[in-house]
Design goal:
Elements: E1 2-7, H1 18-21, H2 33-36, H3 44-57, H4 62-69, H5 78-87, E2 92-101, H6 102-112, E3 120-124, E4 126-128, E5 134-136, H7 153-166, E6 171-178, H8 184-187, E7 195-198, H9 203-213, E8 223-224, H10 230-240
Parallel strand pairs: 1-2, 1-6, 2-3, 6-7, 7-8
Antiparallel strand pairs: 4-5
Helix pairs in contact: 5-10
C-alpha cells in the first residue's frame, strides 16, 4: 500500500507567503493603503484579486511577476524531501492543498525542477486576462464554518481520498504537513495511524496542542509530530516506508 504526503504550500514548502512575496515585483515594493485596507477577514482570495489588479495597473508584466515569484526561498530541507518523493513515486503519492494560486505554485515548482514530486495541486485558479492582469478565483464554495470562504482543506482531502479509493488506491498512511490555522480542519479526517505534522512555532502546532491537552479524540485521532525542516519530515517518512 502507498503513503500519501499532503502539503500546505506557504510557510511549509516555501519559507514565506507567496501572496505577499508578489508585492516585490512592484517598483516601490509596497501597496497603496486603498488596496491594503480593503482586506476582510476570511476573504483573502478576493483581496488577492485586487492586489493582482493593482499590479497589472502598474504595468508590471507577467514575466516580471513570474521572475519575482521564482526567487521565493524553499523551507530548509524541503528540496531534499521533494526530491526523495519524486524518486519514490511508485510508493508515495503527493498532493498540495493551498490558499495560494495555480500560477504561483506552478511557477515555483517548475523553477526548482520539483514539479515531478507533486501529483496534484488543489488551490485557487489563476490566469492572465486580455489586459495582462492576473485574475484569481475561489477554489470552491463549501459549508464549513471553520474555514475561509474559498477553501475547506478537509473537504478537498476527503474528496481526493474517496476518488482514490474508487480507483482502487488505499493509503497505508497519510502525512499532513502544514503550519496555519486553515490546516487544522483537514487534520480532523486523519485516522489513528496517520500523522499530523505541524511546523514548530506556528499556529497549527498550538491548535493541535490544545486538542491533545483536551484528549479530544473526536477532532484528532492522528499522531502529532512537529517539524522544523524538511529533513525532520523526511526522517519520519523514511521510517514509515
Amino acid at each position: 500500500m502507498k503513503t500519501l504526503m499532503v502539503f500546505d504550500f506557504d510557510h511549509t514548502v516555501v519559507d514565506d507567503n507567496s501572496d505577499t512575496w508578489v508585492i516585490r515585483c512592484l517598483p516601490g515594493q509596497t501597496l497603496p493603503d486603498s488596496v491594503k485596507n480593503s482586506y476582510r477577514k476570511g476573504h483573502w482570495t478576493e483581496f488577492m484579486g485586487r492586489v493582482m489588479n493593482y499590479i497589472g495597473s502598474q504595468e508590471v508584466s507577467a514575466d516580471r511577476v513570474r521572475s519575482v515569484m521564482e526567487t521565493i526561498p524553499f523551507t530548509a530541507g524541503m528540496t531534499d524531501l521533494l526530491t526523495f518523493i519524486s524518486e519514490h513515486k511508485s510508493t508515495i503519492d503527493c498532493i498540495v492543498i493551498s490558499d495560494s494560486n495555480t500560477m504561483f505554485i506552478d511557477w515555483i515548482l517548475h523553477a526548482s525542477g520539483l514539479q515531478a514530486a507533486v501529483d496534484q495541486v488543489f488551490t485557487n485558479p489563476a490566469k492572465f486576462n486580455e489586459l495582462g492582469y492576473m485574475e484569481v478565483q475561489c477554489y470552491h464554495s463549501h459549508d464549513c464554518d471553520r474555514c475561509p470562504v474559498n477553501l475547506c482543506k478537509k473537504k478537498v482531502l476527503e474528496l481526493y481520498l474517496s476518488e482514490q479509493s474508487d480507483a482502487g488506491v488505499e493509503y497505508e498512511r497519510v502525512f499532513y504537513v502544514g503550519d496555519g490555522g486553515n490546516d487544522l480542519c483537514p487534520t480532523s479526517c486523519l485516522r489513528g495511524h496517520d500523522v499530523a505534522m505541524p511546523r514548530k512555532g506556528y499556529t497549527l502546532e498550538k491548535l493541535l496542542a490544545k486538542l491533545e491537552s483536551r484528549e479530544d479524540t473526536t477532532s484528532l485521532k492522528a499522531k502529532v509530530i512537529a517539524w522544523s525542516s524538511g529533513t525532520d519530515i523526511l526522517q519520519e517518512l523514511k521510517a514509515s516506508i
